[in-house]
Design brief:
The chain is α+β, with helices and mostly antiparallel strands. It has six helices and four strands; from the N terminus they run αααβαβαβαβ. Helix content is 34%, strand content 13%. The protein has a four-stranded antiparallel β-sheet with strand order 1-2-4-3. It binds flavin mononucleotide (FMN).
């Protein structure tokens, strides 16, 4: 009888706290160590290997809307978001970048037999543009952070990238930039690749010494 009571108590404790990311989170969700948001933050990693599974637009919508709900200076919202899940577009820009890199040190990345596209192989890419202003780069970084955490919480992998964007300011990149249809005065700043992860990379080490209390 005592064992049964103990097992019952253990069950109540286990299910009343959010111990796993997929467990429903209600009523403020317990302590920091068992909090679903903290868990999502700590478990998110940059993903550079994805399955070929298409990302449902319903999920991409949730990620994008999560992004534009990020805090931003004076709520000016000087940003634009473009989502590309067209595999032909991703293939074409990869081929154009490959051609453009011929004979340069950048050509090496195209030798990878597993290369699917220049956006670390993500099957969907969310481009973030800003109208340059005092807060807009920070705003867009916060937006990308929201997007990556939203993706993780929806069972998707993601990666923030700036590297592949240099191409858009080259003459060969112009048609691709044009196809993103950004408003006058807006500049590409970041992109976030999204897809179903095909790897589980370990966390890259962080230096906790940078955090100090000033008493
Ligand atoms: C602003 C920014 C730009 C980045 N650009 C690239 C990139 O071009 N290519 C890439 O593979 N990773 C890129 N990353 C991902 C970082 O390399 C990654 O976040 C970092 O190594 C920490 O690893 P983690 O995200 O798995 O914690 C970028 C990240 C940020 C925040």
């Amino acid at each position: 009888m005592r064992k049964m009571i103990m097992a019952f108590v253990a069950l109540i404790v286990a299910t009343s706290c959010c111990t796993k990311a997929e467990q429903a989170c209600t009523e403020g969700c317990c302590k920091a160590e068992t909090n679903q948001v903290i868990e999502t933050i700590m478990e998110r990693r940059s993903i550079r290997k994805y399955t070929d599974q298409k990302v449902e637009r319903e999920l991409l919508d949730k990620i994008a809307v999560g992004g534009i709900n990020a805090p931003n200076g004076m709520n000016a919202q000087q940003w634009e978001v473009r989502i590309v899940d067209n595999q032909e577009w991703l293939k074409n820009i990869t081929e154009a970048q490959r051609k453009s890199a011929e004979g340069t040190p950048m050509a090496k990345q195209f030798e990878d037999p597993n290369l699917k596209n220049v956006f670390r192989n993500a099957p969907a890419v969310i481009f973030i543009a800003h109208k340059p202003g005092p807060c807009t780069q920070v705003d867009c970084g916060l937006m990308a952070g929201n997007m990556m955490l939203a993706a993780k919480s929806l069972g998707l992998g993601s990666i923030c990238m700036m590297g592949p964007l240099g191409f858009f300011s080259k003459p060969e990149g112009e048609p691709f930039l044009k196809s993103l249809n950004l408003s006058e005065g807006y500049k590409l700043l970041l992109c976030v690749g999204v897809g179903y992860a095909d790897e589980e990379p370990a966390a890259r080490p962080r230096n906790n010494e940078v955090i100090k209390y000033i008493d």
